[in-house]
Amino acid sequence: MFRWLPVISGIATKDEVEIATAEELAVWNEVAYQKINLTKSRGGVI
């Protein structure tokens, strides 16, 4: 699930995730997690 979290939240494309390093995925996952939480707390849509 966490591998595709950046794609689901619009942070990265599927192609980018496929070739990303572990460090890039970690950063993108954190950004995606924060984006989802911020959007959820406002009641909006991503």
Tell me what the structure shows.
The structure is a single chain. With 46 residues, the protein is an all-alpha fold. It has one domain. The chain has 3 helices and no strands.
Task: Kindly summarize this structure in a few lines.
This protein has helices at about 5-10, 15-20, 20-40.
Low-pLDDT parts are none
- Can you give the helix content as a percent range? 55-70%
Identify the overall geometry: elongated
Summed up, the domain count is 1
Distance between the termini: 17 Å
Kindly provide the radius of gyration, computed on alpha-carbon positions and rounded to a whole number of angstroms: 11 Å
**Biggest beta sheet summary:** none
Number of helices: 3
Q: Please tell me the overall pLDDT.
A: 86
How many β-strands, per DSSP?
A: 0
Secondary-structure-based class equals mainly alpha
Oligomer: single chain
Order of helices and strands: HHH
* β-sheet strand percentage: under 5%
